[in-house]
Design a protein that fits this description.
The chain is an alpha/beta fold. The protein contains 15 helices and nine strands. The strands form three sheets. The chain has a five-stranded mixed beta sheet. It has a two-stranded parallel ribbon with strand order 1-3. Strand 8 and strand 9 form a beta hairpin. Helix 3 packs across helix 14 and helix 7 runs parallel beside helix 8. It is globular.
Length: 365
């Protein structure tokens, strides 16, 4: 698949109800097949560490606690039994250098410049709109989540059908993101953005690189990192990234080498770090290391739900592990979770195959 075709595919992941033109594009797109999983044995997952020494990190023992918590969460909420390999150290610098060489330039051009603030907000509205739920319940639930996080200070969706309300929500979220990034630039330049930078090159914080990383021929199913992923892109930009001021906790994308066709990435940074920039993003809340272990474990289990079952985001059901969290305190997140109220197959977004994941990037030689 060319990078242009892959861009079309990314935009179609959650958009198959947008109308005839997107139906045609979706037919042309290629997606990862839902994997055939073993029914009576544990699913092996090979793990790599990608660590940035600039940032706080778990000890080896704490990372093992993260993996153990993930295993228990998957069994409870998604009825998946997995076994993780002993994590192997990989070089963050090496994989990013390889992507510098091989990632097509037109894809790098989707990175929006949050340092300068010179962002095309019309393009951002389109990027946000393409990721929003397709069904009315999901759109209204997503809007309610935005209103909750902003203490009700958000315009309504008005009257109209799904398309009209989706468009209205995209405009609202664009305005929210623009305001949040103004605040982010006031402190991020000297904090985690500066410590993630590479002179003249996209920084370690850029999601586009992390999304493309599994397309390298690396033998891993899971990438664990302490690197903050904080960025803005002109495609497939989700509501939860908007509400987190550009922060991404985890990601799942197609893999060139994984047996399952996909690989998942989980970052501990926004749970583990208690620096002033991060605490401000978390609305002043401090997390203990025990909190960080649980939150990272839930995050990784969520991503594995995308990876192995291709589940989507059920915004309308707060009991779901697959519903994205937005700096939700761990005790509140735990109180909301209820596997009996959100089982696999219980809603459209909790149905295996609901999330259509584009095939791996066609990297340059």
């Amino acid at each position: 698949m060319t990078s242009v075709a892959r861009h079309i595919a990314v935009l179609c992941v959650a958009l198959l109800a947008l109308g005839p033109i997107f139906g045609v594009l979706a037919d042309e797109a290629e997606y990862v097949d839902l994997p055939d999983l073993p029914e009576s044995e544990a699913i092996p997952l090979k793990v790599a560490f990608l660590i940035n020494p600039e940032f706080p990190n778990f000890s080896e023992h704490e990372w093992r606690e993260v993996l153990d918590f993930t295993t228990a969460s998957l069994e409870e909420h998604l009825q998946l039994t997995v076994v993780f390999s002993e994590p192997e150290a990989a070089s963050l610098e090496a994989v990013f250098s390889e992507l510098d060489r091989r990632l097509p330039e037109e894809h790098v051009d989707y990175i929006a410049n949050i340092h300068s603030g010179e962002i095309d907000w019309d393009r951002m509205t389109e990027a946000i709109r393409y990721t929003l739920p397709q069904h009315l319940d999901g759109i209204e639930a997503a809007h309610a989540e935005v209103a909750r996080l902003l203490d009700g200070d958000v315009p309504g969706l008005g009257i109209g059908n799904e398309r009209r309300k989706r468009n209205r929500l995209a405009v609202i979220l664009t305005d929210v993101l623009e305001e949040k990034l103004e605040g982010l630039r006031s402190f991020g330049q000297d904090g985690f953005l500066a410590r993630s930078s590479r002179p003249g090159l996209p920084g370690f914080n850029e999601w586009v690189y992390w999304d493309a990383l599994p397309s390298l021929d690396l033998p891993y199913d899971i990438y664990l990192t302490n690197q903050p992923i904080l960025s803005v892109e002109y495609f497939a930009y989700p509501l939860h990234a908007v509400m987190r001021s550009g922060a991404t906790f985890g990601s799942t994308s197609a893999s060139a080498a994984s047996e399952y066709g996909t690989a998942s990435i989980a970052s501990s940074f926004f749970f583990l770090d208690n620096g002033p920039d991060t605490v401000e993003l978390r609305n002043g809340v401090q997390y203990s290391r025990a909190d960080a272990i649980r939150l990272t474990g839930w995050l990784l289990a969520h991503e594995i739900g995308h990876q192995l079952l291709h589940l989507a985001h059920p915004w309308e059901n707060t009991a779901c592990l697959m519903r994205p969290s937005n700096f939700t305190p761990p005790e509140v997140f735990a109180e909301n979770l209820d596997s009996t109220a959100c089982s696999v197959g219980s809603s459209p977004d909790m149905t295996p195959g609901a999330a259509r994941i584009p095939i791996a990037y066609e990297l340059e030689d």
